[in-house]
Amino acid sequence: MQDLIKKAGKVKLLVMDVDGILSNGQIIYDANGTETKAFSVQDGVGVKSLARYGILTAIITGRSSPMVDKRAREMGVDYVVQGRDDKLIALTELLAMLDPALNITAADCAYMGDDLPDIKAMQTVGFAATVPNAHAEVIKRSDMVTTRAGGTGAVREICDLILKGHGHYQGFIAHYTLEQTQTGDEGL
């Protein structure tokens, strides 16, 4: 676990897929043909926690959905790229458009994906994570498999790990509890 925490401590940008990561992967249509998705509130708290400590977040998804834009705004996601089947090209383009002063390369990114279109992007970044119900080939190429499935707090697990790696986890938790840490922002 310490190796994962150390690796997570280098993350400057968390990139997430949507279907199967931020949602459970199901696409539900109502009688009018309107698509709906369910998102985890815990993932939202996790994503917001990263922003508090200057860690950027992005979504790269193959589908396009107004619900994704809405949820991304609610969570404070910095970059949203929709309708891109080639996730590696989308990631490369995203990194190229970042302010050079941020000094973020693929090695500084974590990527969460669950299916075959995510593999190339996951192989390019410094930290690759997935969910337990991901495709076997994705699991095989991941640094970490969360205990929770997509849409049920899997992103939160990675956010917490990133906070631990950066030494902010205890300070983040102290913000929500009556207990106080000695320094207010220490690691494990």
Features:
188 residues, alpha/beta, 6-stranded parallel β-sheet, two-stranded antiparallel sheet, globular, CMP-NeuNAc_synthase, hydrolase
Word description of this protein:
The structure is a single chain. This protein is an alpha/beta fold and 188 residues long. The protein has a single domain (2-24, 37-175), classed as Rossmann fold, CATH 3.40.50.1000. The protein has 9 helices and 8 strands. It has helices spanning 2-8, 18-22, 41-52, 66-75, 87-97, 119-124, 136-140, 154-165, 169-175, and strands at 13-16, 28-29, 35-36, 56-60, 79-81, 109-112, 127-130, 144-145. The strands form 2 sheets. It has a 6-stranded parallel beta sheet, sandwiched between helices. The longest helix is centred in the first third of the chain and has 12 residues, at 41-52. The mean pLDDT is 92. Its EC number is 3.1.3.45.
